[in-house]
Amino acid sequence: MEFVIKISQFLLSLSLLIVLHELGHFIPAKLFKTKVEKFYLFFDVKYSLFKKKIGETVYGIGWLPLGGYVKIAGMIDESMDKEQMAQPPQPWEFRSKPAWQRLIIMLGGVTVNFILAYVIYVFMSFIYGDTDIKIDSLKGGYWIENPVLVDLGFKTGDKVIAINDNSIENDSEIGQYIISAETITIERNGSQQVIDLPDNFLGQLSSSGNKDLFEYRYPFIVSKVADTSLNKSADLIKDDIITGINGKELPFFDQFKNELKNYKGQTVNVDVLRGDETLSRALKVGNDGTVGVFRSINPNKFQELGYYDVIRREYTFGESFGAGADKFVKTIVNYGAQLKAIFTPKTEAVKGLGGFKAIYDQFPSVWSWSYFWGITAFLSIMLAILNLLPIPALDGGHVMFLLFEMVSGRKPSEKFLERAQVIGFFILIALVLFANGNDIFKAITN
Fold first, then answer.
1. pLDDT tens across 185-205, in order?
2. CA-to-CA distance for 152 and 139, rounded, in angstroms?
3. CA-to-CA distance for 132 and 173, rounded, in angstroms?
4. Rounded to an integer, what distance in angstroms lies between the CA atom of residue 152 and that of residue 33?
5. Cα–chain center distance at 260
6. Which residue segments constitute the domains of the chain, with CATH numbers given?
7. Contact 203, 352 (CB under 8 A)
8. Are strands 293-295 and 57-72 parallel, antiparallel or unpaired?
9. CA angle at residue 106 from 24 to 14, to 5 degrees?
10. What are phi and psi of 280, to 5 degrees?
11. E-assigned strand segments in 262-419
12. What angle do CA 91, 93, 49 make, to 5 degrees?
């Protein structure tokens, strides 16, 4: 069931982005009376799941979910229709249109992607508002388990108060600045300390296979006892809070987890808070240092117990336009920083480059419209920026040649454009293979 939910969100988001991106090319092409021969969701390599001709355009769904396309008459694209290009130019063809019209047609897809992301952020601000956590309010600081962070000197209990020269007040700001982080200032036991990060910090994180960085510390709230647990007959019920072992107070789950390692194969007495009553229960510890009790992740309960303070802000519809713009700009800047890191060899951030599985993994295992729209907005910006890269076969490649034509007054020859398209196609295939190969390598090694 989890796979069905995740793949449904993945395909729905991908389909929405592709259709709207291609619609961004389709609409200006039609406005400029340019013939559009095909409009496809996914690629129809030798086969279509569905197709229907309406007017002069064939609309369809291909079987290969790696993207989509519109085939515009008289345009050198991935179809490499040399027969058509060998014929004299016709007034309804792309190549016959003025350069400024062709530029608008080519920029239509990324324009729609940017608009879509902004609109999503506006409505998310209006419907869901914003929530964040004040770092000062974190009880016990962060839980540090990632081996990369541990090796650099971070410890459980640290609070992040600055990244580079940027002061950090809210938890969400860590994700905003971590991509370009060179130094992180922490507060430990009331004093500040600066930790220098290596150039290949991002590469180390990618290689470690551990996605967790700075996690909240929370109590051990019981969800249920596993049916196969040594303690299946123990008197523990949902929402019990385990607060200690053998009289030792352990307010955080990470403390409990580490303490159990000292009692492998033994029986311990744990303190249990049930409502206002404190109980004692004997639990058997397995040879692996666990008790077979599932914990509950309940953010509202954690806040109620005073483990952190949640900041909530709601927006009027008018205010949502400004809040949406702020999210939109921050996402673009953050993704730009990611691309810069990927193209900077010393960061080794390229190790974190992922393909379709990496995108699929972003979606939660339960259906959540707030997560779905948030991820879709980010992917829409990602798709727009990647399409603007000056690589032949991408929109950015076509735009590059059009700008050259408009500035120089000379149009590149069709033979040159055909060769550039082939080169661009192989570059794209190499990037797709590399990104998805990274997914496979990480799945095998982690």
1. 999 988 999 999 999 999 898
2. 23
3. 9
4. 61
5. 35
6. 2-126+371-445 (no CATH), 135-217 (2.30.42), 220-296 (2.30.42.10)
7. yes
8. unpaired
9. 45
10. -120, 135
11. 267-274, 277-284, 293-295, 310-313
12. 145
Residue 427: both structure tokens together: 């570059």
- Going 403 to 405 to 408 to 412, the CA torsion angle's sign is positive
**Token pair for residue 376?**
């879709």
Nearest to 72 by CA among 53, 85, 88, 62: 85
Q: Report helix, strand or coil for 21.
A: helix
**Would you list the DSSP string of 251-299?**
-SHHHHHHHHGGGTTSEEEEEEEETTEEEEEEEEPPTTS---EEEP--H
Name the nearest CA neighbour of 172 among 311, 286, 271, 2.
311
At position 174, the amino acid (one-letter code) is I
The alpha-helical segments, DSSP class H, found in 32-137 are 82-86, 99-128
Tokens of 160: 């992040």
> Phi and psi for 285 in degrees, rounded to 5?
-100, 125
Residue written as token pair 């350069």: 99
pLDDT band at 123 (very low <50, low <70, confident <90, very high): very high
- Is-contact 443 105, C-beta < 8 A? no
Q: Is the predicted pLDDT of residue 71 greater than 80, yes or no?
A: yes
CA distance readout (Å), 118 to 320, 334, 338, 381: 11, 15, 20, 9
CA nearest neighbour of 237 among 265, 279, 202: 279
Q: Report percent pLDDT > 70 for the chain.
A: 96
With CA atoms as reference, report the closest residue to 246 among 232, 262, 229: 262
For residue 149, report the phi and psi dihedrals to the nearest 5 degrees: -65, -40
Task: Provide the 10 A C-beta neighbour count for residue 441.
Answer: 11
> How many residues appear in the chain?
446
222 pLDDT higher than 90: yes
